[in-house]
Amino acid sequence: MIILKRNDEIEKMRESGRFVAQVLDTVGEMVKPGISTWDLEEIADKMVTKAKVKAAFKNYRVGRHVFPCCLCISVNEEVVHGIPSKKRILEEGDIVSVDFGVQKNGYFGDSARTFPVGKIDDTAADLLKVTKEALDKGIEQMYATRRLQDIGAAIQQHVESFKFTVVRDFVGHGIGRGLHEDPQVPNYGKPGKGIRLKPGMVLAIEPMVNVGTHEVEVLDDNWTVVTKDRSLSAHFEHTIAITKDGPQILTVQG
To answer: What pLDDT, in 10s, does the model give residues 208-251?
Structure first.
């Protein structure tokens, strides 16, 4: 069931989104060679504790598996759901995806960005640029006259025009009082297909884009998703409200 949000609920989600953006801004400034992914986790955890909010991913349960951290940090061939570690030291030329969500005043915000670690090669730079642009292309479709698959179709078309691929096993989602609500929002699709978009829908749009095959697999930690061919992957995400005046990005500061 898709839950439409009132304007006051969207404003509460905007508050959550601002905090998410603040944390990602702070974490992004820390990304450099020689730092561990655990160092990034620690600063996010301190900010969550100080703000007295709930980290969306920490203690998130899927079956008997519980995610242990505030941040999902995925490096290079890791697509999503990487677990921060003191042993994982970022190196010059890496790319690192940071996914963070929070629950504040009963409502969730969720966003992700992929950061370069020092100087990266041309392929990695193109991947980050195209993935961010693909997110923007998806957001451009979020008007109350369009259909759900218009979002994924725009993302897919942009990504594949640069010979990259979109992950199909993991998708975007509705968001509100629940971190994951209906509908699912694939990063691929056919224009004009799917449910009609309506004002009050709030969706987390999150293209995950690979240099090689779109196929992925989960590592033995039961969380970390990697590209099957171990090619690079990037991930960008925003929480977006569909309004009568068009899409509004909630996971930004200001």
So the answer is: 999 999 999 999 999 999 999 999 999 999 999 999 999 999 99
* Rounded distance between C-alpha atoms, residue 95 and residue 125, angstroms: 9
Q: Is 175 part of any domain?
A: yes
Q: Is 254 domain-assigned?
A: no
Q: How many Cα atoms are found within 13 Å in the side-chain-facing hemisphere of 185?
A: 34
Residue 147 lies in a domain: yes
Query: Which residue range forms the structural domain that includes residue 73?
Result: 7-249
The verdict on residue 50 lying in a domain is yes
Distance CA 159, CA 206 (A): 13
Percent of all residues in the chain with a pLDDT value above 90, rounded to a whole number? 99
Residues in the chain: 254
Tokens at residue 144, please?
Answer: 């109350």
pTM of the model: 0.97
